[in-house]
User: What shape does this take?
Amino acid sequence: MPTDALIQQINEQISYEFAAEQQYIAIAVHYDSLTLPRLATLFYKQGLEERNHAMMLVQYLLDRDASVTIPGVQAPRTQFADVVEPIALSLEQERRVSDQIEGLSQTARDEKDYLSEQFLIWFLKEQVEEVAKMSSLLQVAERERHNPSRIEDFIVREAFDAEDADPGAPKAAGGAV
Assistant: This one.
């Protein structure tokens, strides 16, 4: 059984993941309102991915007989100055989540909770991919700030929003959507 401190941290991470889901949906709606369907779809998918991350953490706590807290979250940011700003915010968010997951992993290691540490390894790998993805997208967006259709072309050309299900991913509570 994870310690109370780790259970509390995982419950906090569930909150962060749901907040990230909401932020990505808000970004997707922003792009939808600008008739940028590829960017909108990318961020709708990102929102779903964050929701699934939260549900993986929920399932892990359930599997370990730990208490689960489903939190409320603050309203996401919905106003952006241009097409680049939401992507920059996304990269910031992914870097912050990476730090949070590293903190969870460190707590598990410090507490010699090897089961939790092993569970969190998948999330560490996922964060490396997410930061790299948003970093690349931001570079393109900054370069093509005044021609957003080229950002959309990049997403299509690089199959940027096409991700295969990871068979090594933890199980999500309620099943993956």
The chain has a mean pLDDT of 93. The domain at 4-69+82-157 is CATH 1.20.1260.10 (Ferritin).
